[in-house]
Amino acid sequence: MTEQQEPEVKSQPSSAAPLANEVAGKKQGRSGALLGGVAILLALGLTGGLYLHGHKNAVTQQAEIGALKQQLADIMGKLDQSNSQDAEQLATLGKSQQQLQEALDALQHKVLDLDDKRPNDWMLAESEYLVRMAGRKLWLEHDLISAITLLGNADERIKALNDPSLMPIRKALAEDIAQLKGMPRVDREGLTLKLAALSDQIELLPLSTVSMPEAKAEADQAVSTNPDEWESNLKKNWVKFTENFITIRRRDGAVEALLSPQQEIFLRENLKTKLLQAQLAVYREQQALYTDSLDKAERWLTQYFDVDNSATQYMQSELDKLKGEQIQFDYPDQFKTQAMLEQVLTERLQRILAGN
User: Per residue in 174-188, is it b (16+ CB within 10 Å) or e — as a string?
Assistant: First the structure.
């Protein structure tokens, strides 16, 4: 009996094993389904989030693209407007250039016709230029000779035109030339050369030396034979007696001291400066400065140099001659011919431009 019960006890475990396996399988199936659901939910959530984020970015990008398109449209509109304005300006400029070119062509055509219409007008214009140059030579450079020469050349050109209507101009030219020829002429180069030569001789002039005044002549000391002049004879005898001891003679007059070497150098340089000032005054036509400079030079020459010396006397005589020179003159304010020539040229030019 004992042996039969043991097999029954051994068989119980074998029948419970499939049930346990079944229960375990159900539990595993439930947990797998739960995990799968969770995974699906997570996938759906992630997908939705990505969709929302992408949609939001897409909306933002669409807004940015719309703003860029608007800016591009504005820029294109401005460019179109600017191009339109530039085109209008170019059209206006082209029209102005065309008008200017037409006017220039017309003027060139008239200028080219000048030689055929009035060839003598060029010589008349040249005469007017010569008259203006004569005025500049006279008023700016005070060149009287050149001014007369230029006026003469202008008259020769008007004479060559052989135009009777220009006789009043030739008459005015003759009056202007006669007025200039009647004015005194100054040899400026000659005056400045003379002054320069005198300045070179200053170093050779001797200074004046100390000169003693003449002693007074002594009275007659002869003794008279008249007894009534005994007092006078006594004085004369006394003078003769004392002459062997002391002799006194009176000299009236001031004695000037000699110049020191340094003062002598300054004196000669100042004298040269005065002559140089006179040279500048000649070219500037400053009569007062010219005369004053020569006066001071002559006064110093007499005061400090030996007036008995031949070189000093020569310089004094030359300074006297130079002081008598006139270096300043009143020139005419304008030429009569100038205004007449300008009027004739203006009238002829107007007729030419008018086509007459």
Answer: eebbeebeeeeebee
